[in-house]
User: Fold these one by one.
Assistant:
Number 1:
Amino acid sequence: MRIPYKKCLAMILVSGLLLALLHAWIPRASSGVDITPREGGQLKKLLEGKIGDSIGGYDNIEYHIKDDVACHLPQNSCMCLADEETFRLPFSNLLSQRVWAHKLDLPFLESHPDPEGVKRHRAQEYNSFQKRSYNPADVLIVAEANSPLQYPTQGVEVRPLKTIIIPGLALKETGSNHTVHLTASLGTFDVAATVDGVFVKGEGEKHMMLSSPLLSTLNRQLQFVTYTNTVFHPKTADTVQFATEGHQSFFTIKVGHGTIPKLYNSGYQKEYNITALVTIATKTFLRYDKLKDLIDSIRQYYPTVTIVIADDNEHPQPVTGPHIEHYIMPFGKGWFAGRNLAVSQVTTKYVVWVDDDSFFTADTKLERMVDILEKTTLDLVGGAVREVTGYKATYRHTISVEEGGEEGDCLHIRDGFYHVIEGFPTCVVADAVINFFMGRTDKVHQVGFNPRLSRRGHLEFFIDGLGSLHVGSCSDVIVSHASKIHLPWSKTDSQKAYEKFRYSSSSADKDVHNEVFYFKNRFKCMTSQ
Ligand SMILES: *[C@@H]1O[C@H](CO)[C@@H](O)[C@H](O)[C@H]1NC(C)=O
Ligand SMILES: *[C@@H]1O[C@H](CO)[C@@H](O)[C@H](O)[C@H]1NC(C)=O
């Protein structure tokens, strides 16, 4: 808390100075300040932008920035700051989770042969991403004060190339000649019925005028105004202007296909039938002994549930048994590629991800996960992993992204969760959870696992899913983990080989991670605990 507040304070002071400079004619006590002009300028610009256009014309009235509120506004100039080093006892890291910061741009650009080229390329790609994801329905429209025009502010939608009646149009005005104009850009207007005494011009065109000496007949006629989308675009919006003499209003009509549902026919059931609802997916590499333990443990509790195994061993061994699908991949394809392959083969409504070095116990109650996914809007729910030592981890994180302008955005990852879920006292909502989770299969497909992350990767999936996945975590659905802590002389050859492969962080591997964050997700830095 302390650090961001200091940063805020500095910005406030800076912006104060700038305001003083810009409004030099207003007498004002300016105190001494430490400055970083870019940010200060931005805070002022930001404040003016927020209040700006909508209530213009009051520039000469002085205002006083309220520090503690203004500094929480998004500023498009984020920074990644680590917690300050304080006096630390041995192991204090384990007690208090210090925030660390990591730059992504410099390490990636320094190792790149053409840093300027890659920056430019990222900017181009981002530009076209923004164009693709732009929707006119998201643009801010302000309704002017005292407009006599009545119109729908939101919720009007038309299917591509189809026709609707525009609901809610009316005029509240007295005067001798009542005239309104409608203008669109992706479609045309018409009337579905005519009213005597109303003059209509421009039917079937992008601009239509309706006029009547009687307000009541005009308003009656406005109830029959139709809009027909004429330009095919599967997901956009038309901004319609509705105007009378001296008054203008704008509203949007969303244009798009409806969402096609993806429903799973799991059969009628009084109780949750895990076999019909759930598939267990895992990826194996050099650990057939562990995989066998996992399968045996699953079979004790769920004898008929399908298990999908992605395997990228150099010398694959057969893994057989009822309800097992074993997919052999090219050698060393990697961690996320394996997850992708396994999940892509799932045909049930839910998929459970479990690491191959875990095993099920009586505490691994998949029914509880199904229950919470059936009864809430969660898309994915994590469980807990119990280590051999008895330590139980849930690995809950919150993720946020702060805007950072041209350099890229800032990624912030923190331990913790948002809130407990009503009716499920052992479950909470977070943004990222542990490597043992159950998700709605179609939502997990949608996010996908970036197959370029071959050795390490976990949070990357949740970062990609931020905003589209609603994630929960329940501490009482537990798998057990075969401990990672082994005495070196007791390791088997395959363990040694696995660790060599998995934990050798080659520089190529690091580059991929930096590139994914810097280029694909367009971050410039991150902080984490
Ligand atoms: C009313 O105004 C419209 C548009 O300004 C005009 O075309 C129309 O002739 C007017 N009607 C009367 C009766 O003045
Ligand atoms: C559960 O679902 C499986 C697969 O659809 C089916 O074979 C089985 O009979 C079902 N069990 C019950 C108790 O309905």
Number 2:
Amino acid sequence: MRRVFLILLWTMSLVRPNVPQAAGVQVFPPVNFTLTVSALAQVLLHWKPNPNQEQKNYPISYDVKILSPVPEEYDTKKTHSIRTVALHNGFSAHLRTLLLHNDLEMRSEWVKQKLPPLPGAPETSVTNLSCVTRITISSTVSLHCTWLPGQGAPPDTEYFLFYRYEMYTEECQDYIKDKWNRNTECRFSVTRIDPEEFDKLIVIHINGSSKYAAIKPLQQLFNQNAIEKVNVPRNVTVFLDQNDLLATWEKPVSPLPKECFEYEFYLFNLKSGNKQTLKISSNDFRLRIDVTSRYSIQVRANYHVCSTRGLWSDWSEIIYVGPSKMENRVAWILAVLCVSTCFTFLLVAIICKINHVWSKLFPRIPTPSNKFRDPFPNDYERARTCASETETELGSFAEDLYGSALDGSVF
Ligand SMILES: *[C@@H]1O[C@H](CO)[C@@H](O)[C@H](O)[C@H]1NC(C)=O
Ligand SMILES: *[C@@H]1O[C@H](CO)[C@@H](O)[C@H](O)[C@H]1NC(C)=O
Ligand SMILES: *[C@@H]1O[C@H](CO)[C@@H](O)[C@H](O)[C@H]1NC(C)=O
Ligand SMILES: *[C@@H]1O[C@H](CO)[C@@H](O)[C@H](O)[C@H]1NC(C)=O
């Protein structure tokens, strides 16, 4: 019990005394506290010192406490403050005067202000908004956003997208529509986003109109760096050097120097099905591979140093290296052709040789003359001679074949 009491005492002593009046000094709350929307997703908090406050003798500051949408509390000596926050669900802030008197901080009562939510029927706002930026070849930044229509949005809803960067605001001119003719995508091929800045905010505001319902706007803030889609590495080349694979590439299109990037190198062995992803921080590398396998290769890039990580680039185009199936097939066909041609030549050579030997061993016997008298001497005789000549030749070829077959079986 005693312990609890002590803790209570100790806790109370930690709390700053909330006494507007001490030693005859009074602290008055600020006056004319106003909230003004000064740009898309930007609110200006503005107030005046209380005219009753004797400012000269004591240092005065203000305690700003933002309750929504994002709780935040800070002190300032100024009489205004600017916040960049999504305002579609409203904004609420409290403010009080702080006065330092003999090392004692004295605080006034709070004054409160709020902005109402932006009007519109529930569930009519877009959902699943996502945006990416890219650095273009001409060193500008392009922006691409996609979203889904709200569940409660009537079919005739038309959405409009605006982006704000610093004090510049622009409406999208290049929408892509879904099958119900509703805008669900927007492209800015050129924006005012500074490619050399990384920590700035990009404000997206999407409102809409419909005949049947008020469409509630949506605002979302994106950190410039976090949505940057890094460009693809350029001029990827791969070649074989004996048993090594050598790969080189150029850094992606970017204002940053090449030291800022790292890469992922994807290697797929088409023969074995093995996959490998290597992290590389230079623009080239060498790797021992199986030269009998064919590989497919891709590279992608991201920031490594210099800037917070962006979104990994897309993979580069697939490059193949190593013997292809087609090459293999062609080589195989060539080999078969070569072997069969050689074999045929050999066979022919052997036949010729045997034919030669055979004809030496058994010289051709002359055909015996016809002793019988021919009843049809002229034409028939001629035809007969022709036929017999053909017969003799065929016979000799058959003998040759027989001989060579015999030859083969003997030797
Ligand atoms: C506060 O606002 C009121 C009315 O707008 C104005 O009359 C008054 O002068 C303002 N007070 C100060 C301290 O500016
Ligand atoms: C939209 O976002 C919700 C919540 O983040 C998620 O559950 C849903 O899958 C998303 N829808 C699509 C189509 O991406
Ligand atoms: C959408 O917002 C823009 C920028 O605030 C505004 O100019 C425009 O009138 C709004 N359109 C609708 C239909 O609310
Ligand atoms: C890529 O290769 C082409 C042709 O070889 C060359 O003109 C170009 O400058 C190279 N790009 C880079 C970034 O080195």
